[in-house]
Amino acid sequence: MNELDDFLLNQQSDEGDSGAFEEDLEPEETEEEPDEEVTNGKVCSLCGTEFTEEHGHPVVCKDCSGNEAAQGIKTATFPEVIGG
Ligand SMILES: [Zn+2]
């Protein structure tokens, strides 16, 4: 906390300088699930749909295979588990 500096800065920068000191841009990753199932192709890399078998490499389900984010990821060959 440095209220004096803050006060002075605000006085100097009163021309089109709103919110210039907001630097809270750290990505928040709150996912706690391990990526293991994605890595070994047990689930879709994008939506997490589970497959009946592990592929041994990351895959996406057919629904996600048309997604831009799925570029470079192979499409699953095993069927999806439906209804868990
Ligand atoms: Zn998917």
Output the keywords.
single chain, 84 residues, mainly alpha, 2 helices, binds zinc ion
Describe what you observe in this structure.
The chain is mainly alpha-helical and 84 residues long. Helices cover 17% and strands 5% of the residues. It has two helices and two strands; from the N terminus they run ααββ. It has helices at residues 3-12, 36-39, and strands spanning 59-60, 74-75. It has a two-stranded parallel sheet. The longest helix has 10 residues, at 3-12. The chain is elongated and about 65 Å long. The N and C termini lie far apart (52 Å). Zinc ion (ZN) binds next to loops.
List the helices and strands and how they pair.
Blueprint: H1 3-12, H2 36-39, E1 59-60, E2 74-75
Parallel strand pairs: 1-2
Bound molecules: zinc ion.
Residues 44, 46-47, 49, 60-61, 63-64 line the site of zinc ion.
Overall helicity: 10-25%
Please state the CA-atom Rg, rounded to the nearest Å: 23 Å
Mean pLDDT: 83
Order of helices and strands: HHEE
Report strand %: under 5%
Q: Point out poorly predicted stretches.
A: none
Q: Which structural category fits the helices and strands?
A: mainly alpha
Choose one word for the global shape.
Answer: elongated
Number of E strands: 2
| Distinct small-molecule ligands in the complex | zinc ion
Major sheet summary line: 2 strands, parallel
Number of helices: 2
The largest sheet has its strands arranged as 1-2
- How far apart, in Å, are the first and last alpha carbons? 52 Å
